[in-house]
Write a structure and sequence with these properties.
Distance between the termini: 108 Å
Shape: flat
CATH architecture of one domain: Orthogonal Bundle
CATH class of one domain: Mainly Alpha
Helix content: over 70%
Largest sheet: none
Order of helices and strands: HHHHHHHHHH
Length: about 475
């Protein structure tokens, strides 16, 4: 017969709260209805006290186990991994946490025991004991597998160090391959440097063409501005002429009106002369002449007015055409201004491209020089083992020195950091030569050789830092410091 497990703490807590709330609800209902017996009021305090005691009793064990868990975790933090939490049965969630922590501590303890056992054997140069990862989950197993691989690497390294002949052959093999790799990288950097110089030439040509296009656009813009000014002047003259034509037309209209009035006066005079009879005959002749004169004046005024109307129509048409031409000239000027701004931006972009290409060109050139100097050091180390190889180091030294005197000086002579490069390079070369001479003595002084090569490595580091300083300001968006030219 198996014992029934008590419910989890969350279920117990829920049941206690439910019972307590039901007790309070029943009490409130009885008090509200007024039907409760007197003994029910005396029953509520003992029930509440019983619930409180039950909660205190049932929560004591979980809190005690939690305190033990906290204590054991503190001990584990100090390195004591053998402590376990027991007496957590029938504690629901707290019991689960305790057993999960115990299992985790078992994994941790097993893991570190495997590590300590393996490395204690490694300390005694016994590499046969490898960590056992079976039974451990996840990262514990993968970590032990990695430790096993590390022990295997230690074993291989131990065997390698135990054989001087094999070590020498491997070093020679490594050096030969390193030289080949550096030679290949050097050739690649030289190709990149040449290509970047070609790109820089193309960018400069584009910049020059952009400048010429900008100058042409400026010239066209100036000419169009002149044309627009001329068209605007013609437009103003046409408008003034139109105003003058309107004045002449107004004057002719006035003359025509005067001729009409004169004709009316002559007609009235003829009527009056007819009434006067023979006495008014001479006056009638004058009236007829005045009438004829007014008729011819009106006819001439109408003819001139017709001619002026035709001319006015042509002047109006010319004015409209000049206004249209002015509008077209303005549109063309706006378009040319747009082209001009485009050419300006293109020129600015071309200059920026040139600057970036020049920076990349300098960077690739310096990378190639770094590779040359690394090759020189490799030849120097090789000459320490075989002094006959010193000729290769000397040839590499001469090539790099020639670059410093010619191409490098053309690229970086104006920069402040350039002045230190030749002397640092000479110090590096002198240190290598002195080390080779020291090791070539019948009784070589190893400490002197090491001291000379340390000096060579220090000079190599200063040489590399000086090369980096030449292009570092440009990479950060600043102009590198240049020497004042006198």
């Amino acid at each position: 017969m198996t014992l029934r497990r008590p419910p989890f703490l969350s279920t117990q807590f829920l049941l206690v709260l439910t019972g307590y709330n039901l007790l309070v609800l029943v009490t409130v209902l009885l008090a509200w209805s007024g039907l409760e017996p007197v003994w029910s009021l005396w029953l509520i305090p003992p029930l509440s006290l019983a619930v409180t005691v039950y909660v205190l009793v049932t929560s004591r064990r979980p809190f005690r186990v939690l305190a033990i868990l906290r204590h054991h975790i503190g001990l584990a933090r100090k390195g004591e991994l053998h402590h376990r939490t027991t007496r957590a049965r029938h504690l629901g969630e707290v019991g689960q946490v305790a057993w999960e922590l115990n299992d985790f501590m078992d994994l941790i303890e097993s893991y570190f025991k495997e590590i300590n056992t393996c490395f204690s054997r490694v300390r005694e140069h016994d590499f046969q004991r490898r960590p056992l990862s079976s039974g451990l989950p996840g990262v514990f197993a993968s970590s032990l597998d990695n430790v096993g691989e590390a022990i295997a690497a230690m074993e291989a390294n131990h065997r390698l160090l135990g054989s001087s002949r094999l070590t020498g052959e491997l070093n020679q093999l490594n050096t030969s391959h390193l030289r080949d790799d550096l030679d290949s990288t050097q050739n690649d950097l030289a190709t990149i440097s040449n290509d970047m110089q070609g790109i820089a030439s193309i960018a400069r040509a584009n910049a020059e063409q952009s400048g010429q296009s900008e100058a042409a656009a400026n010239s066209i813009g100036e000419r169009l501005d002149t044309i627009a000014a001329s068209v605007e002047a013609v437009n103003d003259a046409g408008q003034a002429m139109a105003r003058e034509w309107r004045g002449i037309e107004d004057a002719l209209s006035a003359i025509s009106g005067l001729a009409e009035q004169t004709n009316l006066l002559a007609l009235n005079a003829a009527i009056e002369a007819a009434r006067a009879g023979e006495a008014g005959r001479g006056f009638a002749v004058v009236a007829d002449e005045v009438k004829n004169l007014s008729t011819r004046s009106k006819s001439a005024a109408l003819q001139v007015q017709g001619t002026l109307a035709s001319l006015s129509s042509k002047v109006h048409d010319m004015l409209e055409r000049s206004q249209a031409a002015a509008s077209v000239a303005e549109d063309v000027r706006v378009s040319v201004d747009g082209f001009r701004s485009v050419f300006v931006r293109l020129a600015q972009t071309s200059h920026e491209v040139i600057e970036r290409v020049e920076h990349v060109t300098q960077q690739s050139a310096l990378s190639r020089i770094k590779m040359d100097h690394v090759l020189y050091k490799q030849y120097g180390y090789l000459a320490l083992a075989r002094p006959t190889e010193l000729a290769q180091a000397t040839g590499q030294y001469e090539r790099l020195t020639l670059w410093l005197e010619r191409e490098g000086r053309e690229l970086f002579a104006g920069l402040a950091g350039w002045q230190a490069l030749p002397s640092v390079w000479q110090t590096l070369h002198d240190s290598v030569i002195q080390a080779v001479r020291a090791i070539s003595d019948p009784a070589p002084d190893e400490q002197q050789v090491l001291a000379r090569m340390r000096a060579a490595e220090q000079a190599s580091r200063r040489f590399t830092e000086a090369l980096d300083a030449l292009v570092r300001p440009a990479a950060a968006g600043m102009a590198p410091p240049r020497l004042a030219l006198t």
